[in-house]
């Protein structure tokens, strides 16, 4: 039950970000979200010049050029029954408003090569088409099982000469807006799609930075005890001590703890300890690059020792729940609900879950988010923002169509077309905000800034400070601003439901937006034979060793024993295989 | 054949047919799935189409340094459960059988039987609360004996006894019912004869009741050996935690955690196959022993 609530809260939180791109008619799951972009190319060319349609050569290098004759493109669809429920009546993959729009805009006519229900059926067909070399003209390349990265799949297709080189058409046709997005990340996503200097796919680029783990603190407790919000790990320790011993809830009983923590404390979600590890430059659940450029497992690096030492000290002093190892996140939520904990480390959406239970039951509870570190920088390892590519089958006569499609869909996502904006309003009026047209060509594929959400937050703050006007907001941003933020700004507690959104944005995301971020990319996402066979028990071992050290059942030097065992029991071999695999993919 | 058709028992065979077909369809036919234990499973190719991998899964199991710890835990916990669930219900049944107050006997029977119907997910939640450092047990121990709180579920000393005893508490009512049924089937003239011979109550239990249900005891004991390598996934998964992996991690939980990483269906099948084979051998062995030495024919 509680799990489901967590899921709902997360989905609701995700919706917040996603509604930011509600203008995208390609379906709700677009990766790029609310954008600050008002790129120059985004105006003016909504109606492409028809004079160009006279000859094929005349439309050359026009990023939004309309084809003179209808261009048929074979596509495939992953049919998610949940999102299909939200289609308006008579809207199907074959005929829908989006198809008409694309026909009008680019004269592109998608032809459904095949479609299959999400899950096993789709995955089977999807993998079979590679084996039988029967690809659609344009499709999204992504991992269906998480066992190999999208990049290693792309590499295989490149080696088998099954996909087109897009370097030339990208340089010729990509719109300024699209180029701007990729450049905002130093074109690293493009490099990720390239082998030997040739680019074989258009990479997706997701909004990533908002997922940094942060510290949530009860401001009312801080104020009561006259403390400052923690900025360093030492501050954190001191605040935790005060929360434990100085009776912050004022009931005369020593029933509070310093920091709420769950048994899976190395996984980022809520009531975890990720920020503490990261503050010491330790990344216990990621593959990272060491100084020599080798990829190594973060969990065995000596930096972990400092973090473990700190947590062990906290446990010894009673600042952590003595039974944290026995409690999963939902169980720990009970402690937060009952007001026993004043601090937790987690994600920006924690205002919605689990803190909301405490906010609901205690009108005084005032949760605020902060980042802390040891060197004024917030370190984190995140998954690379690209996990899928838009690719073109080898031999398809119009590979530039893929670039044009990305141009248009990016422009749609950021409200560059009046037609799609009007259509959205029409749908809202006729069918409701949760109904959509069926998507077309490239559903759930998008590009954006890595800090799209953080840019939005800064805009909101400027508006509240009177430094900007609401006119600068995109349609998606305006929706969030009008619904959740503006009505709560003067009296945040007025509407309890929206207050959670308010602190998620104006406290948590704002704290991340104003931090000096130092993000590394998870160096390996796939798997290898030994990885499959042994990583599970090695992860077990790590959790066991770390938990025992924190609970003072083993001394801190036990970490070295763990590292030795980890290496001997297959860890060294996995590391070797991972590095070989990365070398095979050609770097990155 | 024709004789068989003309046989006046023919309609009985027809009546048996649906069961026979169902049995083949759902019990015999799916057995081809155990080949998965020796294959490298590729979902798109199906069970039959996947390539053979020989004894790879078993090599993986044997190479894993944790397997012996896990095997030891499994055996200790499941033997502990087996013994408690053999002795306690017999004692309980004999005691209930001696009761003459009907309503009391019935209520005790119902109450002991009740937890059998509750899922471990629910019970584990209750046990976790009761046994926590702020729970009722620690509270009682502290107020009465002045003991320091013990983290029962986080202690490698306490975890196994808690698993075995809580399982006993949950399941003892079920076997008790079977023994009680067996006890009622004992011919009452035997008790009367014993009484005439001047037997005391204890003597009646020892010489009439126990020999009367010995067959059922042997049957249940033999059948329970089948599950010697299943220590009870539901219960342990819901109660254990990373601290008690040393004493509480059993084959099923270990396979669950390790199989999840790479969706290793082969591993699960391979372990299941070993469990079944060992279970079958043990059942066959006990059956033979019971038949040879005690002349009990169980089946």
Tally of DSSP helical segments of chain B: 15
How much of the sequence lies in strands of chain A comes to: 5-15%
Number of domains of chain B: 2
* Structural category of chain A: alpha+beta
Q: Which topology of the largest domain in chain A does CATH recognise?
A: D-Maltodextrin-Binding Protein, domain 2
Per CATH, the superfamily of the largest domain in chain B is MetI-like
Straight-line distance between termini of chain B = 30 Å
Organism (chain B): Cohnella zeiphila
Pfam family, one (chain B): BPD_transp_1
Main location (chain B): membrane
Transmembrane segments (chain B): 12-32, 75-96, 210-233, 267-290
Write a concise keyword list for the protein shown above.
heterodimer; A: 588 residues; alpha+beta; D-Maltodextrin-Binding Protein, domain 2; 3-stranded antiparallel beta sheet; 11% strand; globular; disordered N terminus; B: 299 residues; mainly alpha; MetI-like_sf (chain B); membrane (chain B); UgpAE/MalFG_permease (chain B); transmembrane (chain B); transmembrane helix (chain B)
Topology:
The complex is a heterodimer of chains A (588) and B (299).
Chain A: H1 2-19, E1 71-79, H2 81-84, H3 97-106, E2 108-117, H4 120-131, E3 138-142, H5 150-159, H6 167-173, H7 176-183, H8 188-192, E4 194-195, E5 198-199, E6 202-203, E7 214-218, H9 219-225, H10 233-245, H11 274-279, E8 287-289, E9 295-297, H12 303-316, H13 329-337, E10 343-346, H14 355-361, E11 367-370, E12 378-382, E13 388-392, H15 400-413, H16 418-430, H17 452-464, H18 475-489, H19 496-513, E14 517-521, H20 529-550, H21 558-585
Parallel strand pairs in A: 1-2, 12-14
Antiparallel strand pairs in A: 3-13, 4-5, 6-13, 7-10, 7-11, 8-9
Chain B: H1 2-6, H2 10-28, H3 46-49, H4 56-63, H5 67-98, H6 102-113, H7 120-131, H8 136-145, H9 159-184, H10 188-196, H11 201-225, H12 233-239, H13 245-248, H14 251-261, H15 265-294
Helix pairs in contact in B: 5-9, 5-11, 6-9, 7-12, 9-11, 11-15, 14-15
């Amino acid at each position: 039950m509680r799990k489901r609530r967590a899921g709902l809260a997360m989905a609701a939180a995700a919706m917040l970000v996603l509604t930011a791109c509600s203008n995208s008619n390609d379906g709700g799951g677009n990766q790029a979200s609310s954008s600050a972009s008002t790129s120059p190319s985004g105006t003016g060319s909504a109606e492409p010049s028809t004079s160009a349609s006279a000859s094929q050569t005349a439309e050359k290098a026009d990023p939004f050029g309309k084809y003179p004759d209808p261009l048929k493109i074979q596509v495939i669809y992953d049919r998610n029954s949940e999102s299909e429920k939200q289609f308006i009546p008579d809207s199907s993959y074959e005929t829908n408003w989006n198809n008409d729009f694309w026909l009008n805009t680019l004269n592109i006519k998608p032809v459904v090569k095949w479609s299959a229900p999400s899950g096993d059926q789709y995955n089977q067909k999807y993998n079979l088409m590679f084996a039988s070399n029967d690809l659609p003209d344009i499709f999204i390349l992504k991992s269906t099982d998480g066992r190999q990265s999208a990049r290693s799949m792309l590499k295989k297709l490149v080696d088998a000469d099954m996909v087109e080189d897009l370097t030339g058409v990208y340089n010729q046709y990509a719109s300024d807006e699209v180029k701007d997005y990729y450049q905002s990340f130093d074109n690293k996503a493009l490099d990720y799609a390239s082998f030997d200097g040739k680019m074989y796919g258009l990479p997706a680029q997701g909004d990533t930075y908002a997922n940094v783990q942060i510290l949530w603190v009860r401001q009312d407790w801080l104020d009561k005890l006259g403390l400052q919000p923690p900025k360093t790990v030492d501050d954190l320790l001191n605040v935790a001590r005060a929360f434990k011993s100085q009776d912050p809830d004022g009931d005369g009983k020593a029933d509070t703890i310093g920091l709420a923590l769950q048994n899976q404390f190395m996984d980022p979600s809520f009531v975890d300890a990720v920020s503490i590890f990261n503050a010491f430059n330790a990344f216990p659940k990621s593959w990272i690059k060491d100084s020599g450029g080798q990829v190594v497992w973060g969990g065995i690096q000596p930096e972990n020792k400092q973090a473990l030492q700190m947590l062990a000290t906290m446990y010894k002093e009673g600042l952590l729940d003595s039974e944290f190892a026995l409690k999963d996140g939902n169980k720990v939520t009970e402690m937060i609900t009952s007001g026993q904990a004043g601090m937790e480390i987690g994600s920006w959406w924690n205002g919605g879950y689990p803190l909301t239970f405490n906010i609901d039951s205690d009108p005084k509870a005032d949760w605020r988010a902060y980042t802390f570190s040891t060197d004024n920088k917030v370190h984190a390892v995140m998954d690379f923002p690209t996990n899928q590519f838009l690719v073109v089958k080898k031999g398809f006569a119009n590979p530039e169509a893929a670039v044009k499609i990305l141009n248009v869909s990016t422009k749609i996502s950021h409200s560059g077309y009046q037609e799609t904006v009007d259509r959205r309003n029409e749908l809202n009026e006729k069918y409701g905000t949760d109904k959509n047209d069926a998507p077309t060509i490239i559903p759930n594929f998008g590009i954006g800034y890595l800090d799209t959400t953080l840019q939005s937050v800064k805009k909101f703050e400027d508006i509240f400070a009177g430094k900007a006007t609401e006119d600068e907001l995109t349609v998606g941003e305006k929706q969030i601003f009008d619904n959740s933020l503006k009505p709560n700004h003067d009296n945040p507690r007025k509407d309890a439901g929206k207050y959670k959104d308010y602190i998620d944005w104006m406290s948590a995301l704002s704290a991340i937006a104003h931090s000096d971020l130092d993000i590394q990319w998870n160096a390996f996402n796939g798997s290898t034979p030994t990885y499959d066979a042994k990583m599970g028990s090695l992860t077990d071992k790590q959790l066991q060793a770390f938990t025992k050290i924190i609970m003072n059942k083993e001394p801190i030097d036990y970490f070295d024993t763990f590292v030795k065992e980890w290496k001997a029991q297959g860890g060294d071999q996995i590391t070797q295989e991972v590095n070989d695999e990365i070398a095979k993919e050609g770097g990155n | 054949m024709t004789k068989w058709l003309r046989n006046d028992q023919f309609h009985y065979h027809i009546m048996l047919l649906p069961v026979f077909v169902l049995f083949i369809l759902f019990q015999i036919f799916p057995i081809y799935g155990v080949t998965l234990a020796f294959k490298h499973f590729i979902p798109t190719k199906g069970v039959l189409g996947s390539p053979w991998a020989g004894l790879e899964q078993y090599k993986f199991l044997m190479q894993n340094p944790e397997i012996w710890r896990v095997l030891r835990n499994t055996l200790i916990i499941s033997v502990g459960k087996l013994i408690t669930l053999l002795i306690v219900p017999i004692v309980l049944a004999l005691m209930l059988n001696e009761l003459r107050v009907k309503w009391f006997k019935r209520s005790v029977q119902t109450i002991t039987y009740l937890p059998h119907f509750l899922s471990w997910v629910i019970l584990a939640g209750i046990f976790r609360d009761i046994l926590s450092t702020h729970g009722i047990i620690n509270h009682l121990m502290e107020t009465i004996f002045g003991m320091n709180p013990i983290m029962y579920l986080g202690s490698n000393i306490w975890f196994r006894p808690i698993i075995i005893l809580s399982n006993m508490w949950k399941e003892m009512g079920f076997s008790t019912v079977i023994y009680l049924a067996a006890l009622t089937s004992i011919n009452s003239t035997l008790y009367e004869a014993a009484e005439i011979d001047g037997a005391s109550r204890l003597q009646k239990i020892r010489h009439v009741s126990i020999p009367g249900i010995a067959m059922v005891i042997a049957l249940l004991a033999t059948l329970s050996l089948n599950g010697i390598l299943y220590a009870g996934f539901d219960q342990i998964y819901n109660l254990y935690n990373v601290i008690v992996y040393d004493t509480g991690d059993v084959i099923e939980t270990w396979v669950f955690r390790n199989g999840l990483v790479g969706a290793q269906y082969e591993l699960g099948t391979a372990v299941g196959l070993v469990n079944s084979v060992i279970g079958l051998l043990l059942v066959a062995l006990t059956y033979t022993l019971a038949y040879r030495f005690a002349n009990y024919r169980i089946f």
